[in-house]
TrEMBL record:
Residues 1-133 form the Photolyase/cryptochrome alpha/beta domain. It comes from Rhizopus delemar (strain RA 99-880 / ATCC MYA-4621 / FGSC 9543 / NRRL 43880). It comes from the Eukaryota. This is Cryptochrome DASH. Keywords: Chromophore, FAD, Flavoprotein. Its cofactor is FAD; (6R)-5,10-methylene-5,6,7,8-tetrahydrofolate. Binds 1 FAD per subunit.
Amino acid sequence: MIDLSKLNSRLSTDYKTPTTWNFHIERCANYRTRFVIESVMALEKELQKRKSNLLILFGKPERLLKELSEFLKKNDCEIHQIHTHKEVSRTLMKRNTRKSHFMKKYAYEELVVEKELTKIWNKTIAFHHDTTMIHPDDVDFTFEQTPKVYAHFRRRIEKMNQPVRPLLQIPDELPAFPDIIWKFPQSEQGKDLLEELYEAFAFEKDERSAFPWPGGEDAARKRLENYLFKTDGAINYKQTRNGMIGTEYSTKFSAYLSHGCLSPRLIWHELNRLQSQKKIDKTGGDEDGIYWIRFELLWRDFFRFLVAGSGNRVFHLHGFRDMSNKEAQEDLKKKNSYSNKVWKSNNDQFNKWKVGQTGMPYIDASMRELINTGFLNNRGRQNVASYIAKDLELDWRIGAEWFESLLKDHDVYSNYGNWQYGKYKKDLFHCLLH
C-alpha cells in the first residue's frame, strides 16, 4: 500500500479460490468462510476511508485476470506495477508438483496467479514478505539453512540487535480508485455475491465461544488494545495460556494473524510499548508473559521458514524430514518406532472423532466445541490430535485437513507444521497465539 500510494491511481483486487481436498473434506467451512468475508468487507471500508476502494472477483484467477487485462487495455488504462504477497512456500513447491494430485492442487494455488500476472501483463511484479514477523532478508541464514529445531531458530533470532523492522506509516489517503473499473462486467457481480455469501453463511453464535469476535482490522486492533493495555492479559499470559473456557485465557490473535487483519510486527512493537509502560525487564523470565507471547510469535515464523526451506514436504506423511533416499529412511527407522508404522484408514473412526462421538468425554467435548464455534483452545488441539494419531492410529493429515476446514484461525504453515512437527513426540501442538 505504501508503494501504491505513490501512483496516480490504484486497483486493489482480492481473489478467493475454492478447492477440494485429498480426503474430500470441505476446505473452508462456515465459520472461517464468514470470518474471511467479514475481513474482506472490513478491508473495503478501510480503503474507502482513504479515498480508495477494493475490487472483489469470484472465479478462476487465471481467467479473470486475462479478462480484466483485456478490458483495461481497451479502455486505455495502463498498469504500472503489480504488488502481491510473497508466500514463502510457492517457489519451493515448483520442484514437486508432479508427484501427486494432492501436491498439484497446492502448487496450483500458489503459482498460477503469479505466472498469469507475468504472462498476461508482462509487468514487473513486486513481492512483499508481509506475513512473517522476522523479514527473511534480515536473518543470517537462507530458508534451506533454517534450523530444524525451534530452540536453535529462536536463539539465532534473539541474538539479533533489532529482529523486527520498524512499522510503516499507513497513508491517510490513497490515490483515487479508477472509475472505469466499475464498468468491468464482473465488478458488481463480485460485490453482490460477497454480500449474498455473507448472509448465506450467517449462523447463530454460541454464547460459550472462546472467540466471539468478527473478522477485520478494526476488530483485530480492538482485541490487541484490550488484551495488552486494558487488562493484564499479556502480563499473565504464560500462566493462563492453556486455559479452556472464556475469552481471556489467551491472546486470541491467531485468526487475525492468519487472515492479515493483524500484523505480527505490530504486535511485537506494541509489546515493546507495554514493556516501557510497565517497566518490565526485556530479558524475559518465567513470570514474563510478554516474553512468552513473543516466544509464540517466533514459533509462527519458524514454521514459515521451515516450509520455505523444505517445500511441500510439510504435506507428506513424514513431514519436514527428507525421505527421498534410502539412507534417510533407514536413519529414521533407527531413531523412531513410528517410522515403520502402517497408518490405518478407518472412516467410521474418523467420522466419530470429527463430530465428537468417540466415547472419550474430553475428546468429544473438544471436537464439539470446534464444530460449534470454529475455535478450540491449545490444550484441546494437542489432545484431539494426539488421540487420532496415537490412539486411533489414523493418518495425521486427515486430522490436519479437518482442522483446516473448521478453524477460523487456520493457516497452512502453523496447522500442518504443528500436526507433523510433533508427530513423533509427546505433544502435537504449540500455542501459536490461539
